[in-house]
Request: fold
Amino acid sequence: MTATALATATTPLATATEDYATLRTAVGAYRITAPLVRLTGDDRLAFLDGFLAKSADYVEPDTVREVLALNADGTPFAILLHFEIGDESWLLPRTAVTADALGAYLARFETAGVTVEVAPEGWGATAFEGPVAWSVAAGFTDFDISGLTLHAVTESPAVPGAPGATAHLARVGTTGEYGYLLLSDAPEAAHRAVLAAVAEQGGAEVGGEGLARVQAEAGMGLYAAGFGGLTVGQADLAWMVDWSRTGEFHGSAELTAPTGSEARLTALVAPVGSRFAAGTPVTAAGRPVGTVLCQAPAANPDEELVLALLDAPFHVPGLELAAADEPGAARPLRTATLPRVIARSLTTKIA
Reply:
């Protein structure tokens, strides 16, 4: 979904607001539609090192991490989850990319000793997030769920309705609340089981707009909005690059370490009801200082959240700026810190 589509999608506002509240106060489930990739073979980690911006040298078994893949010109291609599960590696895009585009990207790299399967038949994933998501996750393990630490993966002993199915539960999320992902070779049964467990905890299946708003407030707005032509530095993704890494990787020759003087993606808040088109200039005392990249869905009734590329030093928090809304009226904007909302999960203990 493009940034423009995020702002104008036809999902009723009430539904997006309800989904937002579900994710913030209970637990919301959603099906993963991004293409999975399965890698097998002894050289799979060396294969990953050819294009991931962080080395796989110290990746532990049964873990998941978030990684960045670059284009040849050093711009971001995709943010991916990298799972190490037994003798297999799995990749799952966080940012929008089709199976064909992902397959074409991976085909550029030497695959001797590695088998690459894009969208392997029969596999799928469901995610669920929220302050009581751990209660749902507890039904997919045979040990105390508090023992599944952040970024850990465990084999799930059973998928209700699918005897003999294989499933893996990862503690990883996108919203700043407790988050889990269930990867299975019986994806429909796994999805139904998750929905049933979520309903028991007072949660529900959620749509893309409410989810995108919570993600944006958690500092992960690029998941839905995309990169918008930004560089690694502009997208504030320099932390996802291992700058001291030995050896080259795809796109590394075109990377320049950030200096703090370049324009950077910045969150701004605006009064409820303000709507800004992508590309709208942002001004300070009438002077152009940046450009709107996208606006998060209007699911939080307290304020609007905008992502813009702002020149230095205007990406610091607390500055009063302005931009013209879609009807053309000047509206106030204020730079803000992320995460924007204090996650309830920070004060909700896993029992």
The domain at 3-212 is CATH 3.30.1360.120 (Gyrase A; domain 2). The first strand starts at residue 28 and ends at 32.
